[in-house]
């Protein structure tokens, strides 16, 4: 979120830093005369904290070459990882048909919000935090703060929507597809962006967010660009951007956890009720007893729900770690006139919130098998593997041959297949080769994979057995 700033007057407290909070506008006499207004929670800033020497001179904490190099390198790495990671998420969903689920619409929109943070917010925040000087004018300062609040709020609200989506998928599997249609998902995404913009651009440009309605007044002494919030805006914006979404995410996680634990207990009861007489084995395969089929289906559902719990729990935990310190400080400081937060602490807490935009793709890559495989395909193929086009052939096998599938053993087979097609077409002396010709049949299917149906892999795409904790909904059968 946008930085808010706390000014200390080094001359008012003798040696060392003082705890007097002063509004960052006007000359020295005006600043000292308005202590009472600051005590009422009028305004606060987060970039003006300085250290005072015994001689009374103030030196910004960050005016050291080593600090600037270390801090700048670390924050630049965060920006790069955020751009690359979220760019991979968008590319994976756009390139692989298996990932184009309703849930991943929210994931893509979340990635877009995180990319926007990395482009419009992080670079300018990096320069400002290091130099402690805003160099881009007050007009762009308005835009910078508005984008900061909008994109960070959108990122948080998307995590909340994803938690609700998984809650519906697990608690109401039979009605999930009806309730969470593509159209409703797009409406929810639009609502997230509208809500995020409504609590940022409108109050900031209209001056509702602070008692000082003209931010260019902050440039009397030195250029600054901070979010000077009053008590009302602090409560409303923090509740909308963090506290309410946090409660929703915790509620969804607790409900899902209880349901999964109940289902696991039921599976254990069913397994214990099955006697050896039920297990009629034929060539290593169960006999198809209805009770066994029911246990297997429920067991798969429990495993899938357990993966959803692990993924959602990780997202909620990282979300709290990254954003809770910031919003505690954001809400407490306007009500605490004696609270002085050092610049280094404020910068670290603010960027800890930005890190949440960086780690979301890492969560998908680590916990979601579909995304992990898609990332490997994109990185290993170097962009050469492209999804197949609909209607690219006369049969389903022909179309599958032109696709890079998500299965680990598919391995960029599309390039070999396309080459085989060109070779087959040129070697037929002007005659359109039959789809059943030997060379086309050999190349039109991926290699056989153990555990998959079909002598030539006809059912490889439909028989992919791995589960996705975030992109797949539970089995409809119970």
TrEMBL record:
According to the record, the residues making up region (Disordered) are 1-23
Q: Which GO terms describe its molecular function?
A: neuropeptide Y receptor activity
Positions of transmembrane segments: 69-93, 105-125, 137-164, 185-208, 232-254, 308-333, 345-367
Q: Where in the cell is it found?
A: Cell membrane
Membrane topology per the entry is: Multi-pass membrane protein
Which key words are in the record? Cell membrane, G-protein coupled receptor, Membrane, Receptor, Transducer, Transmembrane, Transmembrane helix
- Which InterPro entries does this chain map to? GPCR_Rhodpsn, GPCR_Rhodpsn_7TM, NPY_rcpt
Q: What Gene3D superfamilies does UniProt report for this protein, alphabetically? A: Rhodopsin 7-helix transmembrane proteins
CC per GO annotation? plasma membrane
Gene Ontology biological process terms in this record: adenylate cyclase-activating adrenergic receptor signaling pathway; positive regulation of MAPK cascade
Domain of life (superkingdom): Eukaryota
Domain (G-protein coupled receptors family 1 profile) spans 85-364
Task: Read off the SUPFAM superfamilies from this record.
Answer: Family A G protein-coupled receptor-like
Q: What is its main location?
A: membrane
Family (UniProt): Belongs to the G-protein coupled receptor 1 family.
Name of the protein in question: G-protein coupled receptors family 1 profile domain-containing protein
Q: Which organism is it from?
A: Paralvinella palmiformis
């Amino acid at each position: 979120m946008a930085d808010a700033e706390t000014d200390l007057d080094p001359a008012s407290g003798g040696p060392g830093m003082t705890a007097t909070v002063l509004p960052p506008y006007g000359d020295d006499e005006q600043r000292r005369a308005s202590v009472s207004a600051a005590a009422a929670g009028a305004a606060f800033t987060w970039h003006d904290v300085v250290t005072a020497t015994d001689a009374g001179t103030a030196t910004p904490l960050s005016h050291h070459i080593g600090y600037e190099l270390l801090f700048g390198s670390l924050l630049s790495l965060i920006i790069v990882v955020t751009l690359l990671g979220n760019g991979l998420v968008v590319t994976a969903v756009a390139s692989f048909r298996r990932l184009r689920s309703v849930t991943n619409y929210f994931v893509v929109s979340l990635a877009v919000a995180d990319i926007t943070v990395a482009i419009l917010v992080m670079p300018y925040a990096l320069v400002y935090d290091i130099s402690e000087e805003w160099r881009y004018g007050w007009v762009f300062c308005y835009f910078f703060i508005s984008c900061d609040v909008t994109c960070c709020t959108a990122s948080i609200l998307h995590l909340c929507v994803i938690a609700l989506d998984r809650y519906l998928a697990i608690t109401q599997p039979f009605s999930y597809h009806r309730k969470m249609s593509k159209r409703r998902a797009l409406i929810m995404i639009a609502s997230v962006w509208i809500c995020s913009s409504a609590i940022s651009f409108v109050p900031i440009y209209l001056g509702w967010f602070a008692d000082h309605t003209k931010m260019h007044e902050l440039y009397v002494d030195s250029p600054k660009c901070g979010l000077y919030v009053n008590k009302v805006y602090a409560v409303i914006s923090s509740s909308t951007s963090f506290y309410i979404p946090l409660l929703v995410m915790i509620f969804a996680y607790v409900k899902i956890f209880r349901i999964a634990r109940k289902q696991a207990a039921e599976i254990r009861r069913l397994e214990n009720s099955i006697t050896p007489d039920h297990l009629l084995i034929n060539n290593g395969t169960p006999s198809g007893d209805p009770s066994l089929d029911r246990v297997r289906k429920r067991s798969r559902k429990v495993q899938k729900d357990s993966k959803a719990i692990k993924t959602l729990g990780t997202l909620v935990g990282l979300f709290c770690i990254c954003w809770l310190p910031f919003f505690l400080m954001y809400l407490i400081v306007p009500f605490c006139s004696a609270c002085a937060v050092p610049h280094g602490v404020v910068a670290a807490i603010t960027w800890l919130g930005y890190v949440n935009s960086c780690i979301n793709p890492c969560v998908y890559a680590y916990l979601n098998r579909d995304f992990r495989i898609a990332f490997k395909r994109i990185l290993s193929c170097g962009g050469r593997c492209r999804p197949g086009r609909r209607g690219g052939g006369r049969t389903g096998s022909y179309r599958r041959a032109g696709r890079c599938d998500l299965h680990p053993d598919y391995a960029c087979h599309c390039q070999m297949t396309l080459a085989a097609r060109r070779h087959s077409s040129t070697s037929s002396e002007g005659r359109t080769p039959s789809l059943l010709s030997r060379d086309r049949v050999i190349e039109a299917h991926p290699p056989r994979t153990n555990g998959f149906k079909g002598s030539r892999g006809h059912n490889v795409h439909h028989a992919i057995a791995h589960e996705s904790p975030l992109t797949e909904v539970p089995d409809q059968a119970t």
